[in-house]
């Protein structure tokens, strides 16, 4: 092949073709292995150049191999819902799963033993807080966060971006990164995608998050589109900066406000939006994302939301809700919540939850694998809404998920559901919008 | 309830080892009562409590006045008593009004009707009838009668009144709760007056009680005073019955109490250490002390304890105490505890309370061993000397 010096360079990088049969003709398949320093875009650009420089036509199958420290195997399905085995460097998890938030290297008030006992598989650590105290370099010096807190299972760190924007008054987002005022000494500091990944490499979690351009979901207008494209550019920078791809998995976050656009980790949804918009965005995302990779809905929370999102095809969740609500004296029970600080509770001699071996995410996983997911959903809704007043948004979402919950709803506000087994197709128009 | 002295230290010493059987559980004395807040340790939850040394960690001090604000005594009774409500069916609950944290005796407000305590919800007056009703609903294994404890600087007159009241309330409590008379502990007060102390001790001995709660210490007396007062009291008590003392928490104070013939100790020392971010590190027996001779802790603490808030521990990946088998030492480092304290995470207090309790129970175990080996006096002397040597070194 002739061509430009660029394509000449590319030719030298390409290994010999394997000559694998594909269909009728013997098609040379180039297996291109890019080091993890090379951004995805660069790869596409390079390969396009090579493609155009050829003077013969041939079928091209491109497989980009980025060594991954993660394996995701789907074990069972019901329509869009899936139960899977997620193999991470430190632990093999079952999805759908919930990650409690251990902001500062600990889940408030629980020892690692107690966490293992209650079936916790993966904990979220906050990059922002950990970098502040004790510092990611110290953590790295002492062998990583797993060793520092003596947690043997999996860890996930966020990028630090969300706390910047939510905790700090003077956070300013530019193409370079997030500028903010250090809470320690008021100095102006800059968190770039590279710096975020560097900090997360030091902390050493199994899953790390790319820095994204976070926008409030309630914002509308051109800012959303700007944020979306900038997030994509930042993901490339994160991939380039990632030094431990063999032991740490990089998750990309896609934002976009409530306009359904391409997402992996589905971010920006945990505050302020109404439930009808919320479930539709999740549905849109899960429909558009690759099947074979885990989908993580950040900041989701309430048990009902988890069940609905799982029915729509999400796999991973995190939220401060259980730990925070516990600090306020509220217990989570199958029926909903128990506000234990109320006066009436002072003389109530009943146990908090007589059926307590309920672990929502474990039961979700098992019910999908064992082929009884719809029954699980129905039982869950019946317990939470004994009067049959299931919210309309849940009914709508379950229709899309293809789960018949008509027996749980006595309210005539619920939509009439379609027959089970025929998942409703959610049509998407050209711009990616979901019509009502 | 059964108590028997199993060994008395020879050479005229009054230190003794004993065996206490309550509710089917046997523990050896001298022993420590773990301090609680509303029935449970301040930070350690029930499941973690089970990982502490047994049967030592089964002894809990319950303060009935913690329950004044709730739950109502009727509810406690309906559930079946404190053991059931707390979920600790196998623990030995020893109840005595007043502690050093949340229920301080308020001698100014105490009057002929009842004893007054400073609680987080204000000052509360507790009458003998109310107290006995609470006790009968809670159903602890052992309980002390209501007492009028006065500080060391009280006037002679006030002191005398406190003795009279305490005896009167003791009789009232016994009369009101005849059913559990066998588990009643008579409280001995008397302030800083040797005469009153002896009088009170002698009088209480005449009542039909299972043992004696020596109160009124830790309220302002100096250490020399306390030693003579304490010994005066124990000299007047029958030697075959149980003796407890409140508010003697420091290792030296415990040794002093053991030397005076006390069997059980209730103190909030562990709680206060934990709140301060301290971990106990002193060597608990002669073997460990031999290892530590000549090697003293850095300036961030004395040889009793280390303050984990100190920056010197930021990167210290060693255990709190190498020879400790508690959960904290088996699983975590000083650096992690330093971090937890810095970021105000409650896990710090949980881990510290586990270690400090474990460590202190080991100390009591060493005391018991020394008594059984007939070496208590040597043990006590060596212990005190090793700590004084440290102070001397620090000064020089």
UniProtKB/TrEMBL annotation, chain A:
InterPro entries: TGT, TGT-like_sf, tRNA_ribo_trans-like. Its EC number is 2.4.2.64. It is an enzyme of class 2 (transferase). The keyword Zinc applies. Residues 80-363 form the tRNA-guanine(15) transglycosylase-like domain. It comes from the Eukaryota. One of its GO terms (biological process) is tRNA modification. It holds the Pfam family TGT. SUPFAM superfamilies: tRNA-guanine transglycosylase (SSF51713). Residues 1-21 are annotated as: Disordered. GO terms for cellular component: cytosol. GO terms for molecular function: metal ion binding; tRNA-guanosine(34) queuine transglycosylase activity. Keywords: Glycosyltransferase, Metal-binding, Transferase, tRNA processing, Zinc. The keyword Nucleotidyltransferase does not apply. NCBIfam families: Q_tRNA_tgt, tgt_general. This is tRNA-guanosine(34) queuine transglycosylase. It comes from Eleusine coracana subsp. coracana.
TrEMBL record, chain B:
Zn(2+) binds at residues 324, 326, 329, 355. InterPro entries: QTRTD1 (IPR028592), Queuine_tRNA-ribosyltrfase (IPR050852), TGT-like_sf (IPR036511), tRNA_ribo_trans-like (IPR002616). Its cofactor is Zn(2+). It is found in: Cytoplasm. Its main location: cytoplasm. GO terms for molecular function: metal ion binding; tRNA-guanosine(34) queuine transglycosylase activity. GO terms for cellular component: cytoplasm. Residues 14-388 form the tRNA-guanine(15) transglycosylase-like domain. Binds 1 zinc ion per subunit. GO terms for biological process: tRNA modification. It comes from the Eukaryota. The keyword Disulfide bond does not apply. Keywords: Cytoplasm, Metal-binding, tRNA processing, Zinc. The keyword tRNA processing applies. Belongs to the queuine tRNA-ribosyltransferase family. QTRT2 subfamily. Heterodimer of a catalytic subunit and an accessory subunit. Non-catalytic subunit of the queuine tRNA-ribosyltransferase (TGT) that catalyzes the base-exchange of a guanine (G) residue with queuine (Q) at position 34 (anticodon wobble position) in tRNAs with GU(N) anticodons (tRNA-Asp, -Asn, -His and -Tyr), resulting in the hypermodified nucleoside queuosine (7-(((4,5-cis-dihydroxy-2-cyclopenten-1-yl)amino)methyl)-7-deazaguanosine). This is Queuine tRNA-ribosyltransferase accessory subunit 2. It comes from Eleusine coracana subsp. coracana. The gene is gb07633.
């Amino acid at each position: 092949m002739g061509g430009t010096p660029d394509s000449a360079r590319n030719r030298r990088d390409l290994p010999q073709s394997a000559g694998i049969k594909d269909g009728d003709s013997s098609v040379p398949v180039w297996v291109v292995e890019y080091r993890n320093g090379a951004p995805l875009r660069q790869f596409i650009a390079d390969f396009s150049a090579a493609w155009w420089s050829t003077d013969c036509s041939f079928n091209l199958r491109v497989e980009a191999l980025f060594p991954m420290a993660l394996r995701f195997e789907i074990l069972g399905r019901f329509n869009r819902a899936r139960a899977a085995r997620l193999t991470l460097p430190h632990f093999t998890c079952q999805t759908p799963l919930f990650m409690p938030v251990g902001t500062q290297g600990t889940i408030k008030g629980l020892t690692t033993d107690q966490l293992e006992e209650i079936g916790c598989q993966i904990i979220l650590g906050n990059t922002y807080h950990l970098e502040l105290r004790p510092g990611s370099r110290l953590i790295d010096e002492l062998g990583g966060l797993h060793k520092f807190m003596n947690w043997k299972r999996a860890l996930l760190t966020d990028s630090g971006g969300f706390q910047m924007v939510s905790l700090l008054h003077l956070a300013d987002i530019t193409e370079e990164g997030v500028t903010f005022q250090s809470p320690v000494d008021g100095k102006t500091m800059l968190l770039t995608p590279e710096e975020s990944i560097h900090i997360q490499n030091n902390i050493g979690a199994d899953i790390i998050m790319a820095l994204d351009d976070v926008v409030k979901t309630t914002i509308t207008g051109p800012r959303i589109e700007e944020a979306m494209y900038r997030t994509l550019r930042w993901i490339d920078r994160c991939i380039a900066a990632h030094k431990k791809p063999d032991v740490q998995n990089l998750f990309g976050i896609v934002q976009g406000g409530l306009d359904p656009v391409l997402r992996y980790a589905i971010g920006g949804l945990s505050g302020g939006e109404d439930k009808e918009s919320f479930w539709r965005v999740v549905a849109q995302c899960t429909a558009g994302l690759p099947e074979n990779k885990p989908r993580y809905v950040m900041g989701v929370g309430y048990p009902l939301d988890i069940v609905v999102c799982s029915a729509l095809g999400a796999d991973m969740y995190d939220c401060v809700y259980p730990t925070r609500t516990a600090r306020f004296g509220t217990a989570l029970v199958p029926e909903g919540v128990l506000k234990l600080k109320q006066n009436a509770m002072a003389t109530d001699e009943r146990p908090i939850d007589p059926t307590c071996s309920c672990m929502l995410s474990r039961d979700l996983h098992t019910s999908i694998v064992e082929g009884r997911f719809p029954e699980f959903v129905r039982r869950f809704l019946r317990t939470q809404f004994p009067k049959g007043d299931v919210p309309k948004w849940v009914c709508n979402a379950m229709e899309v998920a293809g789960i018949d919950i008509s027996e749980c709803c006595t309210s005539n506000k619920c939509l009439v559901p379609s027959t089970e087994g025929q998942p409703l197709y959610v049509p998407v128009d050209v711009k990616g919008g979901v019509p009502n | 309830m059964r108590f028997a002295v199993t060994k008395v230290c020879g050479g005229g010493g009054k230190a003794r080892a004993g065996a206490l059987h309550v509710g089917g559980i046997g523990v050896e004395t001298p022993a420590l009562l773990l301090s609680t807040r509303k029935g449970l340790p301040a930070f350690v939850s029930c499941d973690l409590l089970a990982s502490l040394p047994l049967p030592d960690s089964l002894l809990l001090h319950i303060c009935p006045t913690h329950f004044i604000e709730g739950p109502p005594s009727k509810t406690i009774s309906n559930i079946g008593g404190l053991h059931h409500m707390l979920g600790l069916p196998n623990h030995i609950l020893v109840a005595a009004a007043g502690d050093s944290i949340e229920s301080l005796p308020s001698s100014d407000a105490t009057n002929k009707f009842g004893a007054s305590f400073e609680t987080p919800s204000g000052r509360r007056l507790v009458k003998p009838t109310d107290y006995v009703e609470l006790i009968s609903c809670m159903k602890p294994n052992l309980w002390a009668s209501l007492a009028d404890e006065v500080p060391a600087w009280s006037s002679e007159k006030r002191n005398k009144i406190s003795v009279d009241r305490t005896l009167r309330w003791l009789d009232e409590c016994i009369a009101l709760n005849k059913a559990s008379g066998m588990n009643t502990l008579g409280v001995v007060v008397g302030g800083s007056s040797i005469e009153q102390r002896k009088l009170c001790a002698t009088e209480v001995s005449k009542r039909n009680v299972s043992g004696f709660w020596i109160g009124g210490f830790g309220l302002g007396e100096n250490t020399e005073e306390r030693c003579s007062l304490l010994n005066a009291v124990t000299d007047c008590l029958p030697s075959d019955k149980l003796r407890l003392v409140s508010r003697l928490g420091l290792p030296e104070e415990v040794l002093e109490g053991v030397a005076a013939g006390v069997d059980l100790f209730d103190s909030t020392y562990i709680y206060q250490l934990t709140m301060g971010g301290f971990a106990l590190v002193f060597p608990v027996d002669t073997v460990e002390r031999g290892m530590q001779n000549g090697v003293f802790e850095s300036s961030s603490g004395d040889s009793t304890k280390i303050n984990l808030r100190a920056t010197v521990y930021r990167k210290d990946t060693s255990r709190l105490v190498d020879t400790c088998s508690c959960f904290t030492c088996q699983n975590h480092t000083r650096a992690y505890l330093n971090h937890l304290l810095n970021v105000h995470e409650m896990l710090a207090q949980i881990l510290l309370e586990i270690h400090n309790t474990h460590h202190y129970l080991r100390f009591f175990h060493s005391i018991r061993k020394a008594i059984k080996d007939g070496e208590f006096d040597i043990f006590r002397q060596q212990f005190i000397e090793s700590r004084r040597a440290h102070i001397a070194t620090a000064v020089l």
